[in-house]
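Supplementary notes for students who missed Thursday's class. We covered one full example, reproduced here. Read the sequence, then the structure, then the short commentary at the end.
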Amino acid sequence: MEQKTYILVTGASSGIGREIAVQLSGSYNVILNGRDKTRLEETLNACNAKNSRLIWSFDLANVNEIEDSLTAFLMENNCSIAYFVHAAGYMKTIPLKMLSVDVFISSFNINVIAAAMIAKVLTKKKINHNSLSSIVFISSNISNFGAKAFSAYASSKAAVDGLMRCLSVELAPTVRVNSVLPGGVRTAMTEQMYQDAELIERMAAAYPLGLGTTQDICAAVKFLISDDARWITGQQLTVDGGRTINISG
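Structure (token representation):
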């Protein structure tokens, strides 16, 4: 049986990851990763059925098992991965005086270490057959700035971008590696922040182009994995409606 190539989207059970998987399923075969198989099946059903769709149901918090699990999945399904989008994320907003080691470990395991271990598997010739051509990490505009109660999340996203820069040099010229840095986008992970009407009003006022949507982030990912971005690697693409350059008031 002829081997098919796919785009792997982690965190595909909801939010930005689901939007990316659904939108790109019209152009690519997709592998959906997440820990909740029921929600992954909902994403699968929303994807374009004209292309192949597979589910890799695995909790990326189990970082020591990622290599074996992904390797077995690729072998069992006789497939390879040409594009990897790491949209899985873990965010806890906790002030320093309440921080625990567990919060930092969870943040770095899912946001950083999982991304690195998946990339490691996908660059192994005997496993992925030199198929990988582009990686996009979903980072955050906070990786370059600071905010109260975001120390664990922001430091993990800064680490993601450090990983991105190093891999872009190490894997060139075969594989391009970039990051997308979203601003405030309403997803299941950030929903708690959007329960405060006053906060939403303040945020909207700080974004010159208004608040964004998951579709805005998906458009950036689609560009970065395409041939239109063939000479772009090692870059942070900030997609935040101008929030990080707005120093008004």
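Commentary. The chain has one domain: 4-241. The helical segments are 15-24, 37-46, 66-77, 101-122, 125-128, 151-170, 197-206, 214-225. If anything here is unclear, bring it to office hours.
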